[in-house]
Amino acid sequence: MTEELRVAVDRRQGGAILFTKGYINNVGGEEIANRAYELMDGGVRTLLLNLRETKIVNSIGISILIEIIEKMMDKGGRIAFCCLTPVIHKTFQIMGLANYATIFTDEEAALRELGLQA
Amino acid sequence: MTTTAERQMDLTLPMVPDIEIAAARAAGNLARELGMSSEAIDEMAHAIIEACINAREHSGSADKRIYVRFVGSQTDGHPRIDVWITDRGRGFDATAARSRRQQLGVTHKRGWGLQIIEAHMDEVEITTSPDGTTIHMVKYEKPS
């Protein structure tokens, strides 16, 4: 039984948006990390993860997201999240992720605050 | 207090990647039939996922099986699901695990399973010995 995660990238002036679809487990977390590190290596320092089409996460997947946040912080950049389900938001808070990344309710507010233009 | 007849489901699952999704979906189907809210179902699903991952990743069980039982009921029209996740592994020190997690921070990225389970469920009881571990969790719809 597999639950593949799909990740789409939208490059913006000033950064990028990653759209996830599916289960963020260890494999899904690594997929997000690969995309994020490619963008960071390319100079992106502002990254928004839109989780609108992700309904399930696990603690291993979140631990990988925290690693991505730490690497971005080391580079002086910023990662934010938007469009979380209430339960994913609660789980992020439990694991402390919410202390290191801004969480926006919707994408419009995130883009405005982060200065990510089309 | 009026309690309706219970509905029970038993599953024996192999310890393979993503099998936790099968357990969470089965519980979700039962909960939906009982009229549980989608947010309560979602919380329960995330707790079941963490319990199954703990069993798969840490139990060291020889039979490589996760034994799952769901019992759904309604009391005065409010749905309740009891979940048992059992492995036949080596057990663990629950007291030490609870103590350790209080020291966790963002620099400690792993070991959050129990905390997530307890945050998402209404009742959690862990029974563990060298013969295995059972996590009994309860989710109920609170009267509005």
Topology of helices and strands:
The complex is a heterodimer of chains A (118) and B (144).
Chain A: E1 6-12, E2 15-21, H1 26-41, E3 46-53, H2 59-74, E4 78-82, H3 86-94, E5 102-104, H4 107-114
Helix pairs in contact in A: 1-2
Chain B: E1 7-14, H1 19-33, H2 38-58, E2 65-75, E3 78-87, H3 94-101, H4 113-120, E4 123-129, E5 132-140
Antiparallel strand pairs in B: 1-2, 2-3, 3-5, 4-5
Helix pairs in contact in B: 1-2, 2-4
Mean pLDDT of chain B: 88
Helix content of chain A: 40-55%
The count of β-strands of chain B is 5
Instruction: Order the strands across the largest sheet of chain A as they lie in space.
Output: 1-2-3-4-5
Instruction: Output the helix-strand order of chain B.
Output: EHHEEHHEE
How many beta-strand elements of chain A? Answer: 5
How would you classify the helix and strand content of chain B by structural class?
Answer: alpha+beta
What order do the SSEs of chain A take from the amino end to the carboxyl end, as H and E?
A: EEHEHEHEH
Strand residue content of chain A: 25-35%
Q: What would the CATH topology of chain B be? A: Heat Shock Protein 90
Shape of chain B: globular
Strand content of chain B: 25-35%
Q: Give unreliable regions of chain A as ranges.
A: none
The major beta sheet of chain B can be summarized as:
5 strands, antiparallel
Question: What class would the helix/strand composition of chain A place it in?
Answer: alpha/beta
N-C termini distance of chain A: 38 Å
- Distance N to C terminus of chain B: 16 Å
Helix percent of chain B reads: 25-40%
| Secondary-structure arrangement, i.e. CATH architecture of chain B | 2-Layer Sandwich
